[in-house]
């Protein structure tokens, strides 16, 4: 049996606030830097989140040049490729950027600014994506299923996404479908209280599909715009994972034909290439439609966005840029590419 709760008063909130298994802070532990980042707008947030990558690229690429410029030959192209790899962008995207620079400048003496502009343009092209906006049902509620491995920042990302939608005036219901992890349920309950939305929970170890079904049911009942449902972040055996996720999707569709309308895969930007290999099973098993890239907060190498787009062929829909409630934004390829290399 599942239970739903309405908006909670501040005095009713549990204390202390737990962190999820990713180590990311829950709302009460939000970074004091979030307000400063918000003041700088999306570009400022992106620059802050990509500072590690920008340091790697900026320092390394500048080191390739002298005051009089640099001849683009095999030695230069090899050194450029090695520096691009250090951003976690992987061999494929780095190789395409190297080849673009070779095509445009081979045999010429070029200045740093020319190469930086070419790299930025190529990254922008590689990140072009269709269907970057969040899916929306023809009539509410829109049901969003969120999946990911343990430690990816999944529950925190749900909280941020919920805040993002609630701040736009949308009515929400959250579903605490990670019934095997009490901390996830508790943390999501705190998020719901802070945001002021309903939450459906189940007993410890309850069938996640039943929570998903009753969350969808509650969203229909109260006229919510969105139902956002958490899932267990476990990769036990691939067969069991697929069966569980397929069951969750099946019961949601039974209650609301065509749902879930969005299945978002949370990937941890700090995990680099490991995030990609860990999440391959989720991508196929859950029928993912988009990606939330979490923890792009200055400690990650943001180049990992490129191989994610390459390997999953899924749009990156949101990025987490810090620990605060406001620190999630819709992903914009143009802003990302510009922020990646701007000094």
What's this model, at a glance?
Helix content is 46%, strand content 14%.
Provide the spatial order of strands within the biggest beta sheet. 1-6-5-7-4-8-9-10-11
Largest sheet: 9 strands, mixed
Fraction of residues in helices?
40-55%
Low-confidence stretches: 6-39
Rg is: 21 Å
Count of discrete alpha- or pi-helical segments spanning 4 or more residues: 13
What letter string, H or E per element, gives the SSE order? EHHHEHHEHEHEHEHEHEHEHEEH
- Which whole number gives the mean pLDDT? 81
Give the strand tally. 11
What is the overall silhouette? elongated
Distance between the termini: 54 Å
Strand content: 5-15%
Helix and strand composition category: alpha/beta
Binding site for GTP: 148-155, 230-234, 294-297
Organism: Rhodopirellula halodulae
Membrane topology: Peripheral membrane protein
Subunit structure: Part of the signal recognition particle protein translocation system, which is composed of SRP and FtsY.
Topology:
Layout: E1 2-5, H1 34-39, H2 41-49, H3 51-62, E2 70-71, H4 74-85, H5 91-105, E3 109-110, H6 112-126, E4 142-147, H7 154-166, E5 172-175, H8 182-195, E6 198-202, H9 208-222, E7 226-230, H10 238-255, E8 262-268, H11 273-285, E9 290-294, H12 305-312, E10 316-320, E11 328-330, H13 333-341
Parallel strand pairs: 4-7, 4-8, 5-6, 5-7, 8-9, 9-10
Antiparallel strand pairs: 1-6, 2-3, 10-11
Tell me what the structure shows.
This protein has 343 residues and is an alpha/beta fold. The chain is built from 13 helices and eleven strands. The chain has helices at 34-39, 41-49, 51-62, 74-85, 91-105, 112-126, 154-166, 182-195, 208-222, 238-255, 273-285, 305-312, 333-341; strands at residues 2-5, 70-71, 109-110, 142-147, 172-175, 198-202, 226-230, 262-268, 290-294, 316-320, 328-330. It has a nine-stranded mixed β-sheet with strand order 1-6-5-7-4-8-9-10-11, sandwiched between helices. α11 links the parallel β8 (262-268) and β9. The longest helix is centred in the last third of the chain and has 18 residues, at 238-255. It is elongated and about 70 Å long.
